Amino acid sequence: MSKPVLDTALREFMYGKLHRVTVTGAELNYVGSITVDPELLRVSGILPNTAVDVVNITNGERITTYVIEGTEKSGVICLNGAAAHQFNKGDMAIIMGYESVPANQLPGRISRAVHVDAGNQIVSVDEYVTPSLETLGQPENNRENTPYAVVDA
């Protein structure tokens, strides 16, 4: 069997995420989007007006929306407009940003996970290096059965 060749075809790459944030608000009467503390955006690499997937850990809902800036260091995570139907204040969520990357540029690319406490203040940042097809299966790449250590405020 021949090895697959990575080419210039674009693939969606999850470059940054805010992991286990607490939703601070859900505003139905709003134009739409998700409001996020700029500090969280900066550290994750997510820019305003870009698309993100938002997964509600509490109820399993998943939406795609766009980001707007909130107040610096406020910890704000507010779902606006129609998204407010899928999220409630106090729900836990994951916000993920993606970019289209040529497949041959994926090996070695870094994906960043920003971990927060119950007040959405940053407690740690993990960076994961994308392996090449040749280095798949190496023990240092294996994250199976790694429980998430819940961080308290």
From TrEMBL:
Class of this enzyme: lyase
Known cofactor(s): pyruvate
Domain of life: Bacteria
Note on how the cofactor is bound: Binds 1 pyruvoyl group covalently per subunit.
UniProt main location, coarse: cytoplasm
Pathway named in the protein's UniProt entry: Cofactor biosynthesis; (R)-pantothenate biosynthesis; beta-alanine from L-aspartate: step 1/1
SUPFAM superfamilies tied to this protein: ADC-like (SSF50692)
Keywords tagged on the record: Autocatalytic cleavage, Cytoplasm, Decarboxylase, Lyase, Pantothenate biosynthesis, Pyruvate, Schiff base, Zymogen
Family annotation (Pfam families): Asp_decarbox
Catalytic activity: L-aspartate + H(+) = beta-alanine + CO2
One MF term in the entry's GO annotations: aspartate 1-decarboxylase activity
Active site: 33 (schiff-base intermediate with substrate), 66 (proton donor)
Function: Catalyzes the pyruvoyl-dependent decarboxylation of aspartate to produce beta-alanine.
Family: Belongs to the PanD family.
Subunit structure: Heterooctamer of four alpha and four beta subunits.
HAMAP family: PanD
Protein name: Aspartate 1-decarboxylase
Species classification: Bacteria, Pseudomonadati, Pseudomonadota, Alphaproteobacteria, Kordiimonadales
